[in-house]
Design goal:
InterPro entries: DUF5995
Radius of gyration: 17 Å
Strand content: under 5%
Pfam family, one: DUF5995
Helix content: over 70%
Distance between the termini: 48 Å
Oligomer: single chain
Largest sheet: none
Length: 241
């Protein structure tokens, strides 16, 4: 029973997708399972009063998850998600997870934030500071999951000796790109809000879609992805107008 808990309900919807996942979409399981566990972790952090405005974080986190579920269900599949979903089946589990995280954070997260922050809210500096701090607190929750998720991925199949040697560096890189991408997400949210006020939101969202898709395409290049991203960055940045 979810007892009306919105986070628990969206986690149950993710589990339903996992239970009903068609064989041709089996490679989507890696990101979906990771996302289900991290969403549960955010719900636990809300229960532990780790946010200044837990009610707002709860609504925001559900909005965020719904954008992924829409893409997964084929309701609205933007180019970053098309690239992530169409990645080769033989890609390692970590690769599929990174593709999903990248598409979801770079493209979906600014939209989720704008769904729960009104234009009037942007005029209140104290409120926006609280929103930004809660946005940044998510990093702590996700960083705590890095080692556990690495263990979950290790259980999906054998790893090379190089992968074992690089695991500590990969964890450091993961935490670094979480912080870096979240800072860029906040910048992009502000840029999209300005566009919303100016009546050019769809145009700017289209620009974000192009940038996000390009970053997903970069992840599809061969090589040690996490190490490369530690240098080049994980996020994307909308240029000013």
């Amino acid at each position: 029973m979810n007892d009306g808990n919105p986070i628990a309900e969206v986690v149950a919807r993710m589990q339903q997708r996992l239970d009903e996942l068609p064989e041709e979409f089996a490679h989507r399981r890696f990101f979906l399972e990771t996302y289900r566990r991290t969403t549960q972790a955010v719900g636990q952090a809300i229960d532990q009063a780790r946010f200044e405005d837990p009610d707002w974080v709860e609504v925001w986190d559900v909005k965020f998850a719904e954008l992924y579920l829409q893409a997964h269900d084929g309701v609205l599949v933007a180019r970053p998600w098309r690239l992530a979903f169409d990645a080769p089946d033989q890609l390692p589990a970590l690769g599929h997870v990174l593709l999903g995280i990248n598409a979801h954070v770079n493209y979906d997260l600014p939209q989720a934030l704008l769904a729960v922050i009104s234009d009037d809210d942007f005029l209140e500096p104290a409120l926006m500071d609280r929103r930004r701090r809660d946005h940044e607190r998510i990093d702590g929750v996700l960083s705590e999951r890095v080692a556990a998720e690495d263990g979950e991925l290790a259980a999906t199949g054998p790893r090379s000796l190089l992968d074992h040697v690089l695991t500590p560096l990969n964890r450091i890189a993961s935490q670094r790109f979480l912080r870096e991408s979240r800072q860029k997400v906040w910048h992009n949210t502000v840029e999209l809000q300005r566009a919303r006020v100016a009546g050019s939101y769809e145009k700017r969202l289209g620009e974000l879609e192009v940038l996000s898709a390009a970053k997903v395409a970069d992840l599809l290049r061969p090589g040690q992805v996490l190490l490369r991203l530690a240098v080049t960055g994980f996020g994307v940045t909308l240029p000013p107008v």
